[in-house]
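tool_call: predict_structure(chain=1)
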Amino acid sequence: MGSQWRTASLDDSAWRPQAGLSRQARAAEQDVAAGGREYRLIPGASKPVLASIYFRRVAGRRVYAYLRWADRGQTSEKFVCEIDRPSRMENLMLAWAKASEEQMLASVPAKPKSASSQSWASSETVRRQMQANKSRDTKPELALRSRIHQMGLRYRVGARPVPGIRRTADIVFTRVRVAVFLDGCYWHGCPEHYRPARRNEQFWREKIEGNRVRDAETDRLLREAGWTVVRVWEHEEIDAAAERVRTVVLSRRAERQGSTARPPGKERAVAAIVD
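tool_result:
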């Protein structure tokens, strides 16, 4: 990540906090990305501190993530990584995961003094659900990719279908222009399983609605660029979802060839790409 020079700047919405967002809502946003509200022990700090991820644009088009914390009246920060995801929440989750991977912090359960200082989650079930959310390589995504691969189809992973459109699809069939998105039921507002949070209700309602709007815009932009978009909910049965993807891919292949689709498995395999 960050090894190639950028041709376009990262959208402000992918790293700047929402205008007018309250301090409490910003704290909740950090808690979601980090997997819960905890005091995090920073190497060199005198005691467990409450850290956060901060983004800053540097070197022209690049945006870097920093781990920031206050100790003994002084604010410190440490570089974590470069970010490149399309949404602020995805970039926060990426940075927290990277900080943990690089052992920049160690989690220590917090001891809240009052109910107002407890986790943002409305229940332990919701908290576990949020902790399980990842922006990439989720269990449903891995299962879907495996099943599609077994069908003889080859694809790219985590790639942008159109270079000029800052959208990353989970699975991309470049030759036939098919982009597959596997949407989490909570983050994308599944009509069957999404349940709004009871705390910070307005913030989360606007957040999920914003994701829905962005999904619709993504579909429109890709269709206008000549792509077919397939969206799969994480709760869908994997075999059925994979068959749906296969049907679309073979249909587009047949259209491209102007005849019947050739047998699957002939398309050259392309190595997975990590953004």
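agent: The mean pLDDT is 78. Proceeding to next step.
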